[in-house]
Amino acid sequence: MMASLQRWINEVAAPEHEAAEPDLRLATAVLLCEVVRSDYRIEEVELGLMREQLQQQFQLSGEQLDELMIMARQEAESAVDHHRFVRELRDHWGYDRRVDLIQQMWALAWSDGDKDALEEHRIRALADLLHVSHSDFVRTRMVEQNRAAIRNSDD
Question: How far is CA 90 from the centre of its chain?
Fold first, then answer.
């Protein structure tokens, strides 16, 4: 795993790509990680859901998922801003796929049973940067809020 991580770091740091473009998997993982860490509490239930979301989207092996989760966390913690990740997704994904990503963010925010105002603020900012309409921002929030309410009523 460390050899793969080092290989990836070397590729990103290659001189021919001074400002190397992130791949779509890393861009997605970093933005999801931003939501997970936005309330200053990283909870296992959130990390587990994030892992599931990435697995479903990209069909990665367990080792690849581990690497992606580590890289995403490192990028989220060290990046000055996340515009390069947002731009990558905005440039390569259609509108519906970006809306789906916002819905995944809401699922993460509600996964621990409670949405924090800081999570909502971060999702709102990312939705704006991803050019997702306010109506879709609200609609996806309501879908995930209702799912959380159903989950909590079953407990």
Answer: 14
